[in-house]
Protein backbone atom coordinates (compact mmCIF):
# COMPACT_ATOMS: atom_id res chain seq x y z
CA UNK A 1 0.00 0.00 0.00
CA UNK A 2 1.11 3.54 -0.64
CA UNK A 3 1.62 5.87 2.29
CA UNK A 4 -0.85 8.74 2.36
CA UNK A 5 0.24 12.15 1.15
CA UNK A 6 -1.32 14.89 3.22
CA UNK A 7 -2.12 18.18 1.57
CA UNK A 8 -0.53 21.15 3.26
CA UNK A 9 -2.94 24.05 3.38
CA UNK A 10 -1.63 27.55 3.01
CA UNK A 11 -0.86 29.12 6.39
CA UNK A 12 -3.34 31.71 7.58
CA UNK A 13 -2.46 35.34 7.31
CA UNK A 14 -0.18 36.55 10.10
CA UNK A 15 -2.50 38.39 12.47
CA UNK A 16 -1.10 39.79 15.69
CA UNK A 17 -3.67 39.30 18.41
CA UNK A 18 -3.41 39.51 22.18
CA UNK A 19 -3.52 35.73 22.40
CA UNK A 20 -0.73 35.36 19.84
CA UNK A 21 1.37 37.82 21.85
CA UNK A 22 0.92 35.69 24.96
CA UNK A 23 1.89 32.55 23.05
CA UNK A 24 5.20 34.19 22.21
CA UNK A 25 5.94 35.33 25.78
CA UNK A 26 7.76 32.15 26.98
CA UNK A 27 10.23 32.19 24.09
CA UNK A 28 10.70 35.95 24.24
CA UNK A 29 11.23 35.86 27.99
CA UNK A 30 13.80 33.12 27.58
CA UNK A 31 15.60 35.15 24.92
CA UNK A 32 15.57 38.38 26.96
CA UNK A 33 16.77 36.69 30.15
CA UNK A 34 19.62 34.85 28.40
CA UNK A 35 20.80 37.64 26.14
CA UNK A 36 22.45 39.76 28.85
CA UNK A 37 24.65 36.97 30.32
CA UNK A 38 25.71 36.02 26.79
CA UNK A 39 26.36 39.67 25.94
CA UNK A 40 28.48 40.20 29.08
CA UNK A 41 30.54 37.10 28.34
CA UNK A 42 30.98 38.30 24.77
CA UNK A 43 31.99 41.76 25.97
CA UNK A 44 34.65 40.34 28.30
CA UNK A 45 36.08 37.94 25.72
CA UNK A 46 36.03 40.37 22.79
CA UNK A 47 37.45 43.31 24.76
CA UNK A 48 40.28 41.12 25.97
CA UNK A 49 41.08 39.73 22.53
CA UNK A 50 40.73 43.03 20.66
CA UNK A 51 42.83 45.21 22.94
CA UNK A 52 45.40 42.49 23.45
CA UNK A 53 45.70 42.25 19.69
CA UNK A 54 45.98 46.02 19.32
CA UNK A 55 48.64 46.17 22.03
CA UNK A 56 50.77 43.40 20.56
CA UNK A 57 50.38 44.24 16.89
CA UNK A 58 53.85 45.75 16.81
CA UNK A 59 55.35 42.28 17.34
CA UNK A 60 53.00 40.75 14.75
CA UNK A 61 51.41 38.43 17.30
CA UNK A 62 48.59 40.93 17.57
CA UNK A 63 47.55 40.27 13.99
CA UNK A 64 46.63 36.69 14.81
CA UNK A 65 44.97 37.75 18.07
CA UNK A 66 42.86 40.23 16.12
CA UNK A 67 41.94 37.51 13.64
CA UNK A 68 40.76 35.45 16.60
CA UNK A 69 38.77 38.45 17.86
CA UNK A 70 37.04 38.82 14.48
CA UNK A 71 36.04 35.17 14.30
CA UNK A 72 34.95 35.17 17.94
CA UNK A 73 32.77 38.23 17.27
CA UNK A 74 31.28 36.40 14.32
CA UNK A 75 30.48 33.48 16.63
CA UNK A 76 28.74 35.66 19.24
CA UNK A 77 26.81 37.48 16.51
CA UNK A 78 25.67 34.16 15.07
CA UNK A 79 24.46 33.13 18.53
CA UNK A 80 22.40 36.34 18.72
CA UNK A 81 20.86 35.68 15.31
CA UNK A 82 20.01 32.09 16.22
CA UNK A 83 18.51 33.16 19.56
CA UNK A 84 16.28 35.64 17.75
CA UNK A 85 15.12 32.93 15.38
CA UNK A 86 14.40 30.69 18.38
CA UNK A 87 12.41 33.57 19.91
CA UNK A 88 10.09 33.48 16.91
CA UNK A 89 11.51 36.27 14.76
CA UNK A 90 11.87 35.82 10.97
CA UNK A 91 15.23 34.50 9.90
CA UNK A 92 17.94 37.09 9.30
CA UNK A 93 19.77 36.55 6.05
CA UNK A 94 23.44 35.80 6.71
CA UNK A 95 26.20 37.97 5.24
CA UNK A 96 28.60 36.91 2.52
CA UNK A 97 31.71 36.17 4.50
CA UNK A 98 33.86 35.38 1.48
CA UNK A 99 33.65 36.48 -2.17
CA UNK A 100 31.60 33.93 -4.08
CA UNK A 101 33.64 34.45 -7.25
CA UNK A 102 37.03 33.79 -5.66
CA UNK A 103 38.51 30.51 -4.40
CA UNK A 104 38.87 30.00 -0.68
CA UNK A 105 42.50 30.07 0.45
CA UNK A 106 44.24 30.13 3.82
CA UNK A 107 45.45 33.72 3.46
CA UNK A 108 42.05 34.96 2.33
CA UNK A 109 40.36 33.23 5.27
CA UNK A 110 42.99 34.51 7.72
CA UNK A 111 43.30 38.14 6.69
CA UNK A 112 39.99 38.63 4.87
CA UNK A 113 38.21 39.85 8.06
CA UNK A 114 40.37 43.00 8.08
CA UNK A 115 38.79 44.19 4.82
CA UNK A 116 35.31 42.71 5.32
CA UNK A 117 32.94 45.24 6.85
CA UNK A 118 30.72 42.53 8.33
CA UNK A 119 33.44 41.41 10.74
CA UNK A 120 33.87 44.98 12.01
CA UNK A 121 30.10 45.35 12.47
CA UNK A 122 29.93 42.05 14.36
CA UNK A 123 32.81 43.26 16.54
CA UNK A 124 31.06 46.57 17.18
CA UNK A 125 27.87 44.70 18.05
CA UNK A 126 29.63 42.41 20.51
CA UNK A 127 31.87 44.99 22.17
CA UNK A 128 29.57 48.00 22.50
CA UNK A 129 26.00 47.84 21.23
CA UNK A 130 24.74 44.45 22.38
CA UNK A 131 25.99 44.78 26.00
CA UNK A 132 24.26 48.16 26.41
CA UNK A 133 21.02 47.09 24.76
CA UNK A 134 20.99 43.75 26.60
CA UNK A 135 21.47 45.36 30.01
CA UNK A 136 18.56 47.74 29.34
CA UNK A 137 16.25 45.03 27.99
CA UNK A 138 17.22 42.57 30.74
CA UNK A 139 16.57 45.16 33.47
CA UNK A 140 13.18 46.14 32.07
CA UNK A 141 12.22 42.48 31.67
CA UNK A 142 13.22 41.55 35.22
CA UNK A 143 11.41 44.55 36.73
CA UNK A 144 8.25 44.02 34.67
CA UNK A 145 8.05 40.29 35.30
CA UNK A 146 8.87 40.68 39.01
CA UNK A 147 6.18 43.31 39.60
CA UNK A 148 3.64 41.22 37.72
CA UNK A 149 4.48 38.01 39.57
CA UNK A 150 4.90 39.64 42.97
CA UNK A 151 1.71 41.67 42.71
CA UNK A 152 -0.45 38.76 41.61
CA UNK A 153 0.86 36.44 44.31
CA UNK A 154 1.22 39.04 47.11
CA UNK A 155 -2.03 37.97 48.77
CA UNK A 156 -0.38 34.58 49.40
CA UNK A 157 2.88 35.64 51.02
CA UNK A 158 2.08 39.16 52.36
CA UNK A 159 0.56 37.66 55.50
CA UNK A 160 3.89 36.12 56.50
CA UNK A 161 5.71 39.47 56.49
CA UNK A 162 5.63 41.29 59.87
CA UNK A 163 4.44 44.89 59.80
CA UNK A 164 5.25 45.82 63.41
CA UNK A 165 6.47 49.38 63.58
CA UNK A 166 5.66 50.15 59.94
CA UNK A 167 4.15 53.62 59.64
CA UNK A 168 4.27 54.25 55.91
CA UNK A 169 1.92 52.35 53.60
CA UNK A 170 1.88 53.08 49.89
CA UNK A 171 -1.88 52.66 49.52
CA UNK A 172 -2.57 55.17 52.34
CA UNK A 173 -0.10 57.68 50.88
CA UNK A 174 -1.79 57.51 47.46
CA UNK A 175 -5.34 57.74 48.82
CA UNK A 176 -4.51 60.59 51.25
CA UNK A 177 -2.79 62.52 48.46
CA UNK A 178 -5.69 61.96 46.06
CA UNK A 179 -8.44 62.79 48.56
CA UNK A 180 -6.54 65.52 50.45
CA UNK A 181 -7.72 63.93 53.72
CA UNK A 182 -6.73 61.28 56.21
CA UNK A 183 -7.97 57.80 55.31
CA UNK A 184 -9.32 55.33 57.85
CA UNK A 185 -9.11 51.99 55.97
CA UNK A 186 -6.77 49.16 56.95
CA UNK A 187 -3.49 50.05 55.17
CA UNK A 188 -2.25 46.45 55.12
CA UNK A 189 -5.31 45.34 53.17
CA UNK A 190 -5.01 48.45 51.03
CA UNK A 191 -1.41 47.64 50.13
CA UNK A 192 -2.39 44.08 49.16
CA UNK A 193 -5.13 45.39 46.87
CA UNK A 194 -2.78 47.99 45.39
CA UNK A 195 -0.07 45.41 44.75
CA UNK A 196 -2.58 43.06 43.13
CA UNK A 197 -3.84 45.83 40.81
CA UNK A 198 -0.25 46.76 39.90
CA UNK A 199 0.59 43.10 39.28
CA UNK A 200 -2.45 42.66 37.06
CA UNK A 201 -1.56 45.76 35.03
CA UNK A 202 2.06 44.70 34.61
CA UNK A 203 1.01 41.15 33.72
CA UNK A 204 -1.52 42.41 31.18
CA UNK A 205 1.14 44.54 29.48
CA UNK A 206 3.95 41.97 29.75
CA UNK A 207 3.39 40.56 26.19
CA UNK A 208 3.73 44.04 24.71
CA UNK A 209 6.93 44.67 26.66
CA UNK A 210 8.59 41.38 25.72
CA UNK A 211 7.54 41.76 22.09
CA UNK A 212 8.80 45.33 21.93
CA UNK A 213 12.16 44.50 23.50
CA UNK A 214 12.58 41.48 21.22
CA UNK A 215 11.76 43.64 18.19
CA UNK A 216 14.38 46.13 19.34
CA UNK A 217 17.02 43.37 19.41
CA UNK A 218 15.76 42.10 16.06
CA UNK A 219 16.02 45.53 14.41
CA UNK A 220 19.56 46.04 15.68
CA UNK A 221 20.60 42.55 14.56
CA UNK A 222 19.13 43.05 11.10
CA UNK A 223 21.00 46.32 10.72
CA UNK A 224 24.37 45.09 12.00
CA UNK A 225 24.40 41.31 11.63
CA UNK A 226 22.37 40.73 8.47
CA UNK A 227 23.33 40.75 4.82
CA UNK A 228 23.48 44.06 3.01
CA UNK A 229 20.88 44.82 0.30
CA UNK A 230 23.65 44.79 -2.30
CA UNK A 231 24.56 41.23 -1.27
CA UNK A 232 20.94 40.16 -1.56
CA UNK A 233 20.90 41.59 -5.07
CA UNK A 234 24.13 39.75 -5.89
CA UNK A 235 22.64 36.50 -4.67
CA UNK A 236 19.49 37.02 -6.71
CA UNK A 237 21.55 37.75 -9.81
CA UNK A 238 23.63 34.62 -9.18
CA UNK A 239 20.47 32.55 -8.64
CA UNK A 240 18.92 33.92 -11.82
CA UNK A 241 22.09 33.17 -13.76
CA UNK A 242 22.15 29.64 -12.38
CA UNK A 243 18.45 29.19 -13.18
CA UNK A 244 18.96 30.47 -16.71
CA UNK A 245 21.89 28.11 -17.19
CA UNK A 246 19.86 25.22 -15.82
CA UNK A 247 16.96 26.08 -18.12
CA UNK A 248 19.22 26.21 -21.15
CA UNK A 249 20.84 22.89 -20.22
CA UNK A 250 17.45 21.25 -19.61
CA UNK A 251 16.06 22.57 -22.89
CA UNK A 252 19.11 21.32 -24.75
CA UNK A 253 18.75 17.90 -23.16
CA UNK A 254 15.04 17.82 -23.98
CA UNK A 255 15.74 18.73 -27.61
CA UNK A 256 18.40 16.02 -27.87
CA UNK A 257 16.03 13.47 -26.43
CA UNK A 258 13.31 14.58 -28.83
CA UNK A 259 15.76 14.25 -31.71
CA UNK A 260 16.69 10.75 -30.53
CA UNK A 261 13.07 9.73 -30.11
CA UNK A 262 12.20 11.03 -33.56
CA UNK A 263 15.17 9.21 -35.06
CA UNK A 264 14.48 5.91 -33.32
CA UNK A 265 10.69 5.97 -33.77
CA UNK A 266 8.80 7.97 -36.38
CA UNK A 267 11.80 8.44 -38.69
CA UNK A 268 12.43 4.71 -38.93
CA UNK A 269 8.74 4.05 -39.53
CA UNK A 270 8.62 6.71 -42.25
CA UNK A 271 11.62 5.12 -43.98
CA UNK A 272 9.86 1.77 -43.81
CA UNK A 273 6.69 3.41 -45.13
CA UNK A 274 8.60 4.90 -48.07
CA UNK A 275 10.13 1.51 -48.91
CA UNK A 276 6.74 -0.26 -48.72
CA UNK A 277 5.09 2.28 -51.03
CA UNK A 278 7.98 1.98 -53.52
CA UNK A 279 7.67 -1.81 -53.48
CA UNK A 280 3.91 -1.59 -53.97
CA UNK A 281 4.40 0.70 -56.96
CA UNK A 282 6.70 -1.86 -58.60
CA UNK A 283 4.19 -4.70 -58.07
CA UNK A 284 1.07 -2.72 -58.85
CA UNK A 285 0.80 -4.01 -62.47
CA UNK A 286 2.42 -7.46 -62.09
CA UNK A 287 1.04 -8.59 -58.71
CA UNK A 288 -1.91 -6.44 -57.55
CA UNK A 289 -2.59 -8.70 -54.54
CA UNK A 290 0.97 -8.31 -53.22
CA UNK A 291 0.79 -4.56 -53.88
CA UNK A 292 -2.46 -4.35 -51.91
CA UNK A 293 -0.85 -6.21 -49.00
CA UNK A 294 2.11 -3.82 -49.06
CA UNK A 295 -0.22 -0.82 -49.13
CA UNK A 296 -2.18 -2.24 -46.18
CA UNK A 297 1.08 -2.64 -44.26
CA UNK A 298 2.08 0.90 -45.25
CA UNK A 299 -1.24 2.19 -43.92
CA UNK A 300 -0.54 0.41 -40.62
CA UNK A 301 2.93 1.97 -40.52
CA UNK A 302 1.39 5.41 -41.12
CA UNK A 303 -1.08 4.86 -38.27
CA UNK A 304 1.68 3.72 -35.90
CA UNK A 305 3.80 6.72 -36.85
CA UNK A 306 0.90 9.07 -36.13
CA UNK A 307 0.39 7.49 -32.70
CA UNK A 308 4.08 7.88 -31.87
CA UNK A 309 4.01 11.54 -32.90
CA UNK A 310 0.92 12.08 -30.76
CA UNK A 311 2.65 10.40 -27.82
CA UNK A 312 5.67 12.67 -28.28
CA UNK A 313 3.49 15.78 -28.43
CA UNK A 314 1.62 14.70 -25.28
CA UNK A 315 4.96 14.72 -23.45
CA UNK A 316 5.25 18.47 -23.99
CA UNK A 317 1.86 20.19 -24.16
CA UNK A 318 -1.17 18.10 -25.11
CA UNK A 319 -4.29 19.96 -26.29
CA UNK A 320 -6.16 18.70 -23.24
CA UNK A 321 -3.76 20.62 -21.00
CA UNK A 322 -4.41 23.84 -22.86
CA UNK A 323 -8.18 23.34 -23.01
CA UNK A 324 -9.10 21.90 -19.60
CA UNK A 325 -6.08 22.43 -17.36
CA UNK A 326 -3.53 20.45 -15.40
CA UNK A 327 -5.84 18.10 -13.49
CA UNK A 328 -7.65 16.90 -16.62
CA UNK A 329 -4.33 16.34 -18.36
CA UNK A 330 -2.99 14.43 -15.32
CA UNK A 331 -6.10 12.21 -15.27
CA UNK A 332 -5.60 11.48 -18.97
CA UNK A 333 -1.96 10.67 -18.28
CA UNK A 334 -2.91 8.27 -15.48
CA UNK A 335 -5.53 6.57 -17.67
CA UNK A 336 -2.94 5.81 -20.36
CA UNK A 337 -0.35 4.46 -17.93
CA UNK A 338 0.45 0.75 -17.96
CA UNK A 339 0.73 0.90 -14.15
CA UNK A 340 -2.59 1.59 -12.36
CA UNK A 341 -2.53 5.23 -11.26
CA UNK A 342 -4.95 7.50 -9.51
CA UNK A 343 -4.91 11.29 -9.34
CA UNK A 344 -5.45 13.25 -6.13
CA UNK A 345 -5.63 17.02 -5.96
CA UNK A 346 -6.35 19.75 -3.44
CA UNK A 347 -6.90 22.36 -6.16
CA UNK A 348 -10.23 24.11 -6.54
CA UNK A 349 -12.34 22.87 -9.47
CA UNK A 350 -11.30 24.62 -12.63
CA UNK A 351 -8.28 26.29 -11.03
CA UNK A 352 -5.76 27.31 -13.68
CA UNK A 353 -2.21 28.59 -13.67
CA UNK A 354 0.03 30.28 -16.19
CA UNK A 355 0.61 28.23 -19.37
CA UNK A 356 4.31 28.00 -18.59
CA UNK A 357 3.68 26.63 -15.09
CA UNK A 358 1.07 24.12 -16.27
CA UNK A 359 3.28 22.97 -19.13
CA UNK A 360 6.29 22.39 -16.87
CA UNK A 361 4.22 20.72 -14.16
CA UNK A 362 2.69 18.38 -16.75
CA UNK A 363 6.13 17.66 -18.19
CA UNK A 364 7.32 16.62 -14.71
CA UNK A 365 4.30 14.38 -14.19
CA UNK A 366 4.70 12.81 -17.64
CA UNK A 367 8.39 12.10 -17.07
CA UNK A 368 7.80 10.62 -13.63
CA UNK A 369 4.87 8.51 -14.87
CA UNK A 370 7.08 7.18 -17.66
CA UNK A 371 9.79 6.31 -15.13
CA UNK A 372 7.23 4.46 -13.02
CA UNK A 373 6.13 2.39 -16.01
CA UNK A 374 9.67 1.63 -17.21
CA UNK A 375 11.85 1.27 -14.14
CA UNK A 376 9.93 1.07 -10.85
CA UNK A 377 8.45 -2.42 -10.93
CA UNK A 378 5.42 -0.95 -9.15
CA UNK A 379 1.90 -2.35 -9.14
CA UNK A 380 0.21 0.93 -8.26
CA UNK A 381 1.07 4.62 -8.27
CA UNK A 382 -0.47 7.96 -7.50
CA UNK A 383 -0.21 11.46 -8.94
CA UNK A 384 -0.74 14.25 -6.43
CA UNK A 385 -1.21 17.95 -7.24
CA UNK A 386 -1.28 20.52 -4.45
CA UNK A 387 -1.15 24.28 -4.01
CA UNK A 388 0.95 25.24 -0.99
CA UNK A 389 2.55 28.30 0.58
CA UNK A 390 5.92 28.69 2.27
CA UNK A 391 6.65 30.42 5.57
CA UNK A 392 6.71 33.81 3.85
CA UNK A 393 3.29 33.19 2.27
CA UNK A 394 4.61 32.78 -1.29
CA UNK A 395 2.42 30.37 -3.32
CA UNK A 396 3.88 27.17 -4.82
CA UNK A 397 2.50 24.41 -7.03
CA UNK A 398 3.57 20.95 -5.83
CA UNK A 399 3.30 17.84 -7.98
CA UNK A 400 4.25 14.39 -6.69
CA UNK A 401 4.34 10.87 -8.01
CA UNK A 402 4.36 8.02 -5.49
CA UNK A 403 4.69 4.31 -6.26
CA UNK A 404 5.17 1.05 -4.36
CA UNK A 405 8.03 -0.18 -6.53
CA UNK A 406 11.54 -1.32 -5.68
CA UNK A 407 12.94 2.18 -5.07
CA UNK A 408 16.57 3.14 -5.56
CA UNK A 409 15.97 6.17 -7.80
CA UNK A 410 18.88 8.64 -7.66
CA UNK A 411 19.90 11.86 -9.40
CA UNK A 412 22.62 10.63 -11.75
CA UNK A 413 24.25 13.27 -14.00
CA UNK A 414 23.25 12.85 -17.62
CA UNK A 415 20.18 10.73 -16.87
CA UNK A 416 16.47 11.44 -16.80
CA UNK A 417 16.00 12.67 -13.25
CA UNK A 418 19.06 14.91 -13.51
CA UNK A 419 17.65 16.55 -16.63
CA UNK A 420 14.31 16.94 -14.88
CA UNK A 421 16.06 18.61 -11.95
CA UNK A 422 17.77 21.05 -14.33
CA UNK A 423 14.43 21.93 -15.92
CA UNK A 424 12.85 22.54 -12.53
CA UNK A 425 15.78 24.71 -11.44
CA UNK A 426 15.25 26.75 -14.59
CA UNK A 427 11.78 27.54 -13.21
CA UNK A 428 13.36 28.47 -9.85
CA UNK A 429 11.75 25.39 -8.34
CA UNK A 430 13.13 22.33 -6.59
CA UNK A 431 13.01 18.59 -7.19
CA UNK A 432 12.82 16.20 -4.24
CA UNK A 433 13.71 12.51 -4.58
CA UNK A 434 12.85 10.12 -1.73
CA UNK A 435 13.48 6.59 -2.97
CA UNK A 436 15.05 4.22 -0.45
CA UNK A 437 16.09 0.76 -1.61
CA UNK A 438 13.03 -1.46 -1.47
CA UNK A 439 10.64 1.46 -1.90
CA UNK A 440 8.30 3.18 -1.77
CA UNK A 441 9.39 6.01 -4.04
CA UNK A 442 8.22 9.61 -3.72
CA UNK A 443 9.45 12.10 -6.28
CA UNK A 444 8.02 15.56 -6.67
CA UNK A 445 8.69 19.16 -7.43
CA UNK A 446 7.64 22.59 -6.27
CA UNK A 447 7.21 25.37 -8.81
CA UNK A 448 6.78 29.02 -7.78
CA UNK A 449 3.49 30.65 -8.69
CA UNK A 450 4.65 34.23 -8.13
User: How would you name the oligomeric state of the polypeptide chains in this document?
Assistant: single chain
* Relative strand content: 5-15%
Determine the N-to-C terminus distance: 35 Å
Number of helices: 13
Q: Which structural class do the helices and strands define? A: alpha+beta
H/E element sequence: HHHHHHHHHHHEHEEHEE
What percent of residues adopt helix (DSSP H or I)? 55-70%
Provide the spatial order of strands within the biggest beta sheet.
1-2-3-5-4
What's the alpha carbon Rg, rounded to whole Å?
Answer: 36 Å
Strand tally is: 5
How can the largest sheet be summarized? 5 strands, mixed
**Uncertain parts:** 1-13
Domains counted in the coordinates: how many?
A: 3
Average pLDDT, rounded to a whole number, is: 78
The gross shape turns out to be: elongated
Amino acid sequence: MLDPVTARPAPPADRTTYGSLWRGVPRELGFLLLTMPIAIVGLSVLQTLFWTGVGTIVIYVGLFVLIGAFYTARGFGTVEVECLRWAGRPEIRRPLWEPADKPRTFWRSAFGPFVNGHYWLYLLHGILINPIVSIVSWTVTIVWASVALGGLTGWIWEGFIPHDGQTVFLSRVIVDWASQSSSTFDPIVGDRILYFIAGALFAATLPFVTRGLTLMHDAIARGLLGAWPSETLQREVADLSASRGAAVAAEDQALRRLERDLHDGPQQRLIRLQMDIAAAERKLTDDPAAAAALLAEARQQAGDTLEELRALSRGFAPPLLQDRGLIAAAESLAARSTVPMRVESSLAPGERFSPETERNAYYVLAELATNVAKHSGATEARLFVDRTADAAGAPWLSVWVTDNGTGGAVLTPGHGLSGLSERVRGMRGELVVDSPAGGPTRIGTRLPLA
